[in-house]
Amino acid sequence: MHVVILAEFAAASGGAEKVAVESARGLAEAGARVTYIQAVDGPVDPLLDHPRLRRVALALPDVWSLPAWRGAVTGIWNAEAARRLAAALDALPEPVDCLHLHQWSRAFSPAVLPVLLARPAPLVLTLHDYFLACPNGVYYRFDRDEPCTVSPMSMSCLAAPCDPKSRLHKAVRVGRAASLRIARGRESLDVIHVCDGSLARMTGWLGTERLRHHRIDNPVRVVHGAPAEPARGDAVAYIGRLTVEKGADLVAEAARRAGLPALFVGAGPLAEPLRVQGAEVIGWRTPAEVGAILRARARAVCAPSRWYETGPLTIYEALAQGIPAIASTRSGAAEKVRHGETGLVIEPEVEALDQAFRLLRDDAVVERLGRAAHAAYWKAPPTLEAHADALLGLYHRLADEYFMRHCTQSESAERDRTVAALR
């Protein structure tokens, strides 16, 4: 089977790119022939170096690197992206059995959808966020620091000043969302959800008439080994973008109140304010470095998302190592945490986090949660192999359906031509 994976970057600067890269590697290791098409030039993850994996770079600019007016136009409809993608697909040395799109908001734009839908192969989209329905992609009111409550693209949505930058940016995002709906046309799409919460929300917003919904966990690349010893750790750890919607500020304040150090691995607009408050911010680290830091320092890993986050992977990685996880009730990762057994599921509020962190001062509690987390995770781990097997099962099913549907249509057309000739 030949699969084309499409993403805007070839190295992990976020969860979507990480999953795209790891999926490509897992599929290649499982025996599939993989073409990885990246929109933007930049660093390339070593995982993409495999004999059954070829990489194609379209050398498109990231819209955030362009002048404002050009970035806006390109973000709404990037005709050049469509042209380059079509040429790249035409140049592939073998037919494609399935296309899998992971991102389209930074360079590809909705313009690539007609190109992909016109190919003689099924198309799958993984929904790492809510861009298929929501203009700002995270269903969050940045003007209020709270989740949104209105229907995406309704009149209330269009009027809401919810964008993290400005009303002008919101207008551009609305334009992109509208062009996305036009680009889809009447075609049916197969979409993959990475958590139950996303499945429920997107089904409610978009229905099932022209969408077929599938549920596959993201892969977690952690080697099965002895559990960590979190009771020896000294800090509550946060890994990821340092932003308000992800709740980095909540961790800092709650840790201060509970009398525990807070360790931040990542970068973002809150980095300097967190340092000013006395938090330890060490920037981005490689996955191997993060694993070592967590095993040495973390009493728990906390992801107190204010938005309805579909992940984050950091919670799964903590559980896999036997480190207690503290997840927001709004996070898809909370679905994997057993409250009071392998970690804690709490509201993304300072008071709730303060109480949770105070529990973590007890070594016996931390040790119990960590050991239970490790044991529960490895009973049914979402490994890269399991992820690749689930994807291949879906690809084969969709490819078979696509062949039967189009074969039947071709045979019907041939029969009609024969009947017409006999008349």
Automatic annotation (TrEMBL):
It comes from the Bacteria. It holds the Pfam family Glycos_transf_1. Residues 14-135 form the Glycosyltransferase subfamily 4-like N-terminal domain. PANTHER family: COLANIC ACID BIOSYNTHESIS GLYCOSYLTRANSFERASE WCAL-RELATED, GLYCOSYLTRANSFERASE. InterPro entries: Glyco_trans_1 (IPR001296), Glyco_trans_4-like_N (IPR028098). The keyword Cell inner membrane does not apply. Coiled coil: none annotated. Belongs to the glycosyltransferase group 1 family. Glycosyltransferase 4 subfamily. The keyword Flavoprotein does not apply. Keywords: Glycosyltransferase, Transferase. This is Glycosyl transferase family 1. Residues 234-371 form the Glycosyl transferase family domain.
